[in-house]
Amino acid sequence: MPAADAVPGFGGGGSGRPVGVVGAGLIGLAVARRLAQRGAEVVVFDKEPEVAVHQSGHNSGVVHSGLYYPPGSLKAVLCRRGVGLLKEFCAEHALPYREIGKVVVAHSPEEVARLDVLQERARANGVPRVRRLDPAALREVEPEVRGLAALHSPTTAIVDFRAVARALAGEVTEAGGRLVLGAEVTAIRPGPHGVTVTSGGRPYELRRAVICAGLYSDTVARLAGDAPSPAILAFRGEYYRLRPERAGLVRGLVYPVPDPAYPFLGVHLTPRVDGQVDIGPNAVLALAREGYRRRDVDLRDLGRALAWPGTRRLVRRHWRAGLHELHGSLSKRAFAAQAARYVPALTPADLLPAPAGVRAQALDSHGALVDDFTLTALGPVTALRNAPSPAATSCLAIAAHLTDHYLQHP
Q: Which of 24, 69, 179, 218 has the smallest set of CB atoms within 10 Å of its CB?
């Protein structure tokens, strides 16, 4: 192995060594930007040839307002802070930020009762102008949507998160940072005076390293000596798209009331900044961490997932929900029927295939889904082990939290 180098374009050894960020998604780039703003030399590593290739570039584009999250949780605090920071960032870079609003629609007395919980969480989290809608008021906001009751969050917005990531990357390089793309990180060796990261076959001597590796957050963290738990289980989220002539069926975002047992399940109707309307996602176990298509299978990924004790316990506990999601995956008619509960005028003929995404779900060894943002500190290495939704919304706030609380002296 060649001698470890200082990163070209940066200072040499000692205190002049840069801080490394593993992962060029939204959070990794936001962290790198924040560090550069504070005067640190920064280098970002990613195995892909461009930024935001995976979760950051395959999400719904929704800027969540903070309706769902328990008050005081990191999700709640960082989501609310992140909304303001993201809105300012988009304005600074002339990126679209459209407050089209969202209705969360109830169809049963049990769901109506859950709206009470969401409304109280919205109040406690400081979400502005959330109001309850009866069926008539719901029709005024969304003429084609039907339900017993709804919550309306008028400040919920949509953005182009790929464009946000590109703008973040631009700020990093403008500040003197470097992106090392197309170079997989294969080793991380913490030491008493820093950390050596091997990327693309080359070792780099760094002062500190931050792991924001998304779908690979567990495997990359383990390179640095972190614990196996939580492990990442990949779920494919499949979508359909409304035919262009039917995009007017909704004005804003239409969401189901989340089931407390499965808060990330349920088909949504999601307008995008380009005028298209997506319907989905479901959640089916992906057979590869990058399993965007049903035929994508990685035997190594699959073997790791099945070997994790939490996976077997999760399947035993929730197999019925899994079969329901699989049915929606295999049947366009079943998928459309879920959406038609909210928009009765919608038919299977209105749906066109759309690209899928893959969600990195952190799972502990007991089969419990890890819900909140999770960070671990390993000497000169800090690892973001879990970054579920609303991570995209919160990316700038996560970066501030991480640098302020974990990297006080970058």
A: 179
